[in-house]
Amino acid sequence: MVRPLHFHPNPETAADNAFQSRACRQPPDETARLAYAEVSHAAARLEVAGVRVHLFDDDGARSTPDSVFPNNWFSTHAGGHVALYPMFAPNRRRERRSDIIEDLKSTYRVQDVIDYSGLEHDGMFLEGTGAMVLDHVARIAYTAQSNRANPVALERFCTHFNFEPMAFATADAQGQACYHTNVMLCVGTDFALGGFYLIADTQRRVAVRERLRESGRELIELDAQQIGDFAGNALELSGRGGERLLALSERACASLSAAQKAVIERSATLLPLTVPTIELAGGSVRCMLAGIHLARR
């Protein structure tokens, strides 16, 4: 997790992020202070719940309003692999930090770092586990087509990391594509939360649902209100004892029905976090978490 120093909704990402607030009611300094506190409290809550958290502060020297969302610029993978990603917005490219990767190397076994960031020069972008929702068991990369998920970059990633790409077009009620897949889909061990109605092609929608069911997941269908409340932007985590936890925002959790919560709670404990200021930037709890799939040294 990264604790931001100069957080605010990013004007460079506003055009294609329908979840992003167009205006903040409080002064910029207060917005930044609240965001810093929300990340601090969320990290502490995760630690108390048994999740090991590596918390870094934004270095503050560069204009990186979205630094709170590190899952977009890097991901880690079993076997000691790390990927660095090409970012769509120029000011988000400054979020990549070698000191964070070096810190991971000192704690975990890292065999290689595959850097796709050079694709930015060719206008090709793939924003990590925002653009892709990875099924690490069935090895499928579910990907909503967007400015931030170039098909060539996706193919390269999937070839290197042994995933099958499963891309699909999306459209909301205004015809706008989902900027990131992880705002509409969460794949857990035994369940998948999805705004499947957003998949534009009916046959593709059926195919995505079937692939998830084939892997043994129970599907939890999210409606437009729940997607808008970030119910799809959740991440299953492991506690120190191996227990499963579903991290999501309080707003997202409140939007779920009792029946939906019951399905989740058969497999994982709900862990709602308070992040209303962070959500002004168009992302929520899942976006704030860059998962660690590396073995400890």
Automatic annotation (TrEMBL):
Entry keyword annotation includes Nucleotidyltransferase: no
Keyword vocabulary terms for this entry: Transferase
Molecular function via GO: transferase activity
InterPro entries xref list: Amdntrnsf_FN0238
Organism: Simplicispira suum
Full protein name: Amidinotransferase
Keyword Transport: no
